[in-house]
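Take a record.
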Amino acid sequence: MNMNPRPRKYGKRKDRVSYIRNSIVCEKSLDDIARDLLLKQFTIIRYAREAHIKIPGCIYYSRRRPEIDALVEQGLSLNQIGAAGGYTRERARQYIHATNQYKCWKEKRRNLKEMKKTDEQRKKLLRQLVSLLELRILELSEQRSWADKKAVEYKRLKPRTPCSLDYLTTLFKTYEEAETKGIKLSLHRLGVIIGIRSTLVGRILESVHVKPMYRKISRTITPKEKREMIERGFHIPLTNVDIGYFIGVPRYIVSHVFTKMGHRCNIHGEQVSCRVASQIYECLDLGFTTQETCELLDTREKIVDYVKEVRNILGGRIITALQVLLNNKNINTPYLP
């Protein structure tokens, strides 16, 4: 005999509430309760709230997804579970909570992380063991070449290097053979032959005190003050060559900074560049004659005469540019003070 008869749709309210309470105790799903009472889910939820009946999260899911439960059992991440089930990460978390699998999933997840960590440590120890065995074999070798010694020396200094002993030995053998034949190989060429980056080749040679066949290229960093001057000159109507001259840096550095800052309008130079005009103004102000100025700057008299005629315009432009570049409003000469 059925102890919990199903009330009709238009039965009494207290019968519906009683049926809902008993069904929740029996862990019936929300879909099944709504189907039995011929009502919608939100109506069931409203009845439960008004009667102070707590609805557990697990009954919201009428259909469990076995494929998702299997992933939860494996302890996969929320992103992986969501991707497999067409969920978002948050939706996967809600599913795990609602189906009362969170504690189990958390434990599986912890065990999986520990297993991965253990596997990584084991692989690391195996790599170190293989490296030590390779070093020992080379040390026990009676006829060791210069390349083998240098490879072992670098491996001792840098035990975590990604380069194997074969790569290192090949590198030093190539270096030795080229040196014997009198052939100079650049770091780039050595890197191409071995199959590694030229920067790494340079660090390897430097670590074992082997000089590169060509001079070492030293990198010069532009000082912060000069970089700020270049940035202030972005909107000044001067060419990159002129700005580099007044600041004291090569043109390519100015171009590099401007390229990072964005598009700059093309600046068309005058008949005479501001750099040459500034040098002419400085010579004239020092008392040199036109002919002497031409000899000092290796220019023509016609250019010096032209620069003198347009001093009010061209000189004023140079003064304004210097005031912006050097951030000094007290500059009143068309050349560096």
